[in-house]
């Protein structure tokens, strides 16, 4: 049997329907149906009305893209070992090295961890990010970072007053040593590093562009392996994109 809610919904639906539009043969057939059959048919019609209304509501009121300021900064959990050799949580908070690039509002680097050479796993290693950061690790080193990319800029958008391409690269190198040196002056955004980079789209979408205009569109959860290749990133959506990267230093052949 129909619930009281669906029965009331169906009654309202019948009242709104034009009168005497149902063919006489259909009305006769309906009157001869068993109560269970009528209820079943009414239930399906009521659910159809309800589903259609919900779908139209979703189309009429699309969810607005959230700005990066609405999203909490990612937290980082660090582990180690105590004097007895047992594993312990040493910290769980936002990394002490968060870098915001003023020349490109919304571009934020969360510098999570880095190593050089072969790590000595004492379990009591100090947090390397307390000393600062760098663009990319040397041979055998690693760098773990999250990067929040700003939304696609609207038509006619201009950078902050006084900002130029060169001044933006200088700011990057001041905040992340030598980062600006990896960028191609002849092709803004293109950059290269002597690393293998493992990347994953954590939130949003991203377009990866390689040489000769080759592009691949990445969705949330998609991964990329950069083998020291020249590339640039473009956010195709009007909302931020968060990506995670682990870079392993190598030697260019």
TrEMBL record:
Residue segments, region Disordered: 1-43, 59-83
Domain Cupin type-2: 190-245
Top-level taxon of origin: Bacteria
PANTHER family per UniProt: CUPIN TYPE-2 DOMAIN-CONTAINING PROTEIN, SLR2101 PROTEIN
Listed name of the protein: Cupin domain-containing protein
Organismal lineage: Bacteria, Pseudomonadati, Pseudomonadota, Alphaproteobacteria, Hyphomicrobiales
Signal peptide limits: none
Positions with biased composition (Basic and acidic residues): 24-39
InterPro entries given in the database record: Cupin_2, OryJ/VirC-like, RmlC-like_jellyroll, RmlC_Cupin_sf
């Amino acid at each position: 049997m129909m619930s009281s809610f669906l029965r009331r919904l169906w009654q309202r639906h019948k009242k709104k329907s034009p009168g005497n539009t149902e063919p006489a043969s259909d009305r006769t057939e309906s009157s001869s149906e068993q109560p269970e059959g009528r209820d079943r048919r009414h239930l399906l019609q009521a659910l159809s009305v309800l589903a259609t209304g919900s779908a139209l509501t979703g189309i009429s009121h699309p969810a607005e893209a959230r700005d990066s300021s609405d999203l909490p900064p990612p937290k980082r959990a660090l582990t180690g070992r105590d004097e007895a050799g047992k594993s312990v949580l040493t910290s769980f908070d936002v990394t002490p090295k968060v870098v915001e690039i003023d020349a490109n509002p919304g571009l934020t680097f969360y510098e999570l961890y880095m190593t050089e050479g072969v790590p000595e796993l004492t379990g009591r290693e100090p947090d390397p990010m307390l000393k600062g950061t760098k663009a990319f690790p040397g041979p055998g080193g690693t760098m773990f970072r999250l990067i929040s990319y700003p939304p696609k800029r609207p038509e006619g958008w201009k950078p902050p007053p006084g900002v130029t391409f060169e001044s933006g690269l200088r700011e990057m190198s001041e905040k992340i040593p030598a980062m600006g040196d990896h960028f191609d002056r002849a092709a803004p955004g293109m950059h290269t590093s002597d690393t293998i980079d493992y990347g994953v789209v954590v939130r949003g979408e991203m377009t990866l562009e390689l040489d000769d205009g080759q592009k691949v569109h990445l969705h949330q959860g998609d991964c990329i392996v950069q083998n020291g290749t020249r590339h640039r990133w473009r956010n195709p959506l009007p909302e931020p994109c968060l990506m995670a990267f682990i870079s392993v230093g190598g030697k260019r052949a």
